[in-house]
Design goal:
Layout lengths: L7 E5 L3 H12 L3 E5 L11 E4 L1 H9 L3 H7 L5 E6 L5 E6 L1 H8 L4 E4 H13 L4 E4 L3 E7 L4 E6 L5 E6 L1 E4 L6 H6 L6 E13 L12 E6 L2 E8 L4 E9 L11 E3 L1 H7 L5 H9 L3 E8 L10 E2 L2 E3 L14 H17 L8 H30 L3 H14 L1 H4 L2 H4 L3
Helix pairs in contact: 1-5, 1-9, 2-9, 9-10
């Protein structure tokens, strides 16, 4: 779908969600101006899991070959006890996921996914990318929305458009002006992220599958990225971090993580000790969305973490941002007719997205409680996984076409 260019879409934020929105909107026939506050495009962090619901959309945007070059495609997801090492349950992925849902389950480095989207966006002449631009404010008017920003030299500029998309992440400035609902809330959980080249690991620690280790008040997830040549490991534990919450990317002391994992099985401790370094960030959240007005108001829409920050217990943060972008593109495709009311189209976009986003937010929060369970709840969780296995781990409501 590449429609004649008509409307002007302004996007704040050049991460995965912002670039996905730029691609979807340009394919829908809109001119796009994207504003990123950093001087270069870069994506921090490590791995991302992309379910069939997300891969199906990326394939629809013509990115199947590009994703195949950078992603890994695990054949199975395995859940194990972090304490005993016992296998609790398995979900078949690979060809099974393709047969069930029409697309694979993929794992990819965030920077690689970001690079695929950026390359695709740069092929569209209707997209203008503005780096080193710090957005200050916006004003909605009857027939347009006007955005103000300060460039790297301190000069104030502005631009008007038909739609403004806030894709500026957890600490979204666009959200604060639109909704004014304050800062996200700390969860009391810390996430340690590490990456290692698999060839440097002992053979028994190398893996081409997704493994989730569940323990009391902690869990660890590992999976391959970059065609399987690297292993991504994320450990989430209970604790607090000193310093501002928005400064999420900190160098972390491996000794702290080792202390949190004392009492876990030898294989898991070997894996953690084999990681060359860790990055640490504190998890923050917002309550699940309550209505469509938290997704869009007037000519301004929120997308991804700016609208519905996802805790990582369902691996759908990037996925819901891509789904938002896809639905936004469908809405703007109807705006090729200049007579269509943009506020009505954005309202319809919000109605289609907010309940699914809220459901995923709530399910991720619930998973966090289950993953970190103690006592009888932990025992019941492990027993249920051993008995039901794939029936519990598969999620047709999430992965099937919506």
């Amino acid at each position: 779908m590449n429609l004649p260019t008509s409307r002007q879409t302004l996007i704040v934020g050049g991460g995965i969600g912002g670039l996905a929105a730029a691609l979807a909107c340009s394919r829908a026939g809109s001119r796009v101006a994207l504003f990123e506050r950093t001087p270069v495009f870069a994506e921090v962090g490590a791995g991302v899991q992309l379910g069939p619901n997300v891969m199906r959309l990326l394939h629809g945007w013509g990115l199947q070959a590009a994703m195949a070059r950078v992603a890994a495609f695990p054949e199975r997801l395995q859940v194990r006890s972090a304490v005993s090492g016992t296998e609790l349950g398995v979900l078949r992925l690979g060809d099974t996921a393709v047969a069930r849902y029409g697309a694979p389950y993929a794992t990819v480095h965030r920077a690689d996914l970001h690079g695929v989207l950026l390359a695709a966006v740069q092929e569209h002449p209707s997209v203008q990318l503005h780096l080193n631009q710090a957005v200050q404010s916006f004003q909605q008017q009857a027939d347009q929305v006007r955005l103000q920003w300060v460039n790297g030299q301190g000069a104030l500029s502005d631009m008007s458009g038909d739609v403004l998309v806030g894709a500026d992440g957890l600490w979204s400035q666009v959200r604060q002006q639109l909704l004014g609902d304050g800062a996200p809330v700390a969860t009391g959980h810390l996430a340690y992220r590490g990456l290692v080249q698999q060839s440097t690991l002992p053979v028994h620690l190398r893996s081409q599958q997704v493994t989730a280790w569940l323990g009391p008040r902690l869990h660890v997830v590992q999976y391959p990225v970059r065609g399987g040549e690297w292993l991504n490991v994320v450990a989430i534990v209970h604790g607090q971090m000193n310093g501002p919450a928005e400064n999420w990317d900190h160098s972390a002391n491996a000794a702290d993580l080792a202390a949190h994992l004392a009492g876990t099985c030898a294989t898991l401790q070997d894996l953690v000790q084999a990681m060359p370094d860790w990055r640490l960030w504190a998890l923050n959240f917002r309550a699940p969305m309550r209505n469509a007005l938290e997704q869009a108001r007037g000519r301004v829409a929120l997308l991804g973490d700016a609208a519905h920050p996802m805790l990582p217990y369902l691996a759908q943060g990037a996925g819901m941002a891509v789904e938002d972008a896809h639905e936004l593109g469908l809405a703007l495709a109807q705006a090729a007719d200049q007579r269509r009311d943009m506020t009505a189209l954005l309202a319809r976009f919000a109605v289609k997205r907010w309940q699914r986003n809220a459901r995923v937010q709530a399910r991720a929060m619930r998973n966090g409680q289950i993953f970190h369970a103690t006592g009888w709840l932990r025992w019941g969780r492990d027993a249920s996984l051993k008995i039901l296995g794939e029936r519990l781990l598969d999620m047709p409501w999430l992965y099937a076409k919506v």
